[in-house]
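hey m, so remember when u said the tokens were messed up on ur end? i reran from scratch. heres the input so u can diff it against urs
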Amino acid sequence: MSAEKSTEPIESPSPSSRVNASPFVPSGKDEPDTGKASLLVLMICVFFCALSLRLFFVNEVLLQSSLLYADLNTVERAGFLVPPDSTAYIRLAKDIFRGYFSAPPDPDALWRTMGYPAFLAPFYLFDLAPTGILVAQAALGSLVAVLTLLIAKMLTGSTLLAGLAGLLSAVSPTGVGLCALVMNDMLLAFIVAAGLCFLYLGAMKEKPVWIIMSGLSFGGGVLVKPILMLWSFLIIPIYLLFCLGEQKPAKWKALGAAVIIQMVVLGLYCTRNYAYEGIFTPSSNINFVLHDYLRPRVEEWVKAGRLPDNRAVRHNRDETRALLDEETRGSSTKEKISLMKTRGMQVLRAHPLLTLQVVLQDMKEHALSGWDYFPRQLPLGAFQVGRLSYAAEQESHVRKTTLILLSVFFCALLISTGVRPTARNRKMFFQISALMLIYAYFSVFSGTAFWGGSRIMYPVEIVLVLLTVLALQAGSVMCTGMLEKAGLAPLNASPAVGVIHRNIPWVLALCVLVAGAYGTLVIIEKDSETYNTFAMMLVRRDSIAESVNYFQNALQLDSGNLQAKSGLAYAFVRLGRYGEAVPLLRELVRVRPGDPNNHFLLGVALANSGSRQESVVHFQEALRLNPNLKNAREALRMLGIQPGEQ
């Protein structure tokens, strides 16, 4: 027997036998890592972690907006909550109930596809906007984290790595911030994540229904954002790579149906635009970009002979827009778009290389500038803007570093697959190739560099999270193999590690909840200046009583905040709480003796508290500091003293 055994060829260990020691790779049916209960627990924890972060953030946005505007449903008054692009979506959402498909639409219909307006429409129909919109987007953002978890589970087979992917998606600053913008980016990310989940299920389970569902998802995505208009062609290689990774035959009929569904949806919408505006296109944004962004930059670059100053570019853009508006006054939308296309293409034909250089320069600026949507388009306090902008900036650095490392890893995996073509290497190679295709599509097609945190690149963040967990799994397998070759104990040979491995889902679930709680506290934390800003907004709205609590909160956080003290003293005087105003105003007069307003308010408080003689002194000092202070002059007359008398 021993002789027979010795003559048998020595085979390399199978992928499953080599990676059993790694906690990142499931080794069998009975392993706790494959349990459905643990996966369900993780999904629930990730969902509520993501939802808590997003709902608290949305609540802060709504609270702070309500301090600015009495009626958030009025777009014109809620401009600080709603970015300029959102007003077009909101008008289109309301047009859906006024014959959107049976009458000539809003001119913005050619710039914005109808998917997101259709999503918004029910909230305006039932008077649930904007709160209902932001809460629904928070739920969608939470589902994006859950879908990321599910895709990671299918790719790696590891509940631990799936939970890590879900956690990264749940705490993403970009994912949190997008929930509070009335923009189509969060809905697009959800559709892309759902479509990818269906597509991989179709490859793994060999069930055509999942492939067709992915086609329906991506078909809907075309109507949300035209960036998916070429996706129907890319879905073919992505699906085939998934099938090669799973070593399953392709379902060509179902794949063809998925492609046709997307093309039919796109064609029908283009036909609708052609019927009303005479232009067979899902969106005319490309003409807008050519005319309003590329053309001014190229023209100013030609004039300067070098990279133009942003001020000159903005001036050129303003002049270009004004000239276009004047020339197309009274013209149809089709004529305006045609003129924009003609002028944009003129610059492109005259300076093709320079236009390409401008595009690359724009990508570089996006990569280095970070994401500035928080301070520009959300009504947040200075502290929150600082925290979220810092988080988004750090996130952008992490993404850029991750992309570089993953590129190196992909090259190493390519070499490894050629040298040692194991089943594990082949599967990971095909999976990463498919994900890299998705990354390339969104980053190149959008024309911006995603690691700057640009909101339109959020789907790429999902892909990077998936690539990261795949790289972690590969690294774990490689380390385990090296340990075994060196004659060292496998990673999970230790009893302590074994206990942790068996309880990984529950430990990770606890970590997810703790991360969610901490992230929520960070987001809702405020500084003294934020409370003072809220209070001043209330004062300007003549909501004096409500402002007192905010001023007091500001002073609790920073007792030396003189603006908050001055505001609180003013509120006390307005409310007739003179006894509480006097000590504050005495301190303000001592610290800022040259401020006539403090002297005047102290005079008012003293006069109404029975200290008539002392109030006269402060009224006179206020007039001395500002002879034009009519209120102080009138107060002295009411006390029977002519200005200038002692």
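this time it looks ok to me. The chain has 29 helices and no strands. if urs says something different then somethings off w ur setup not the seq
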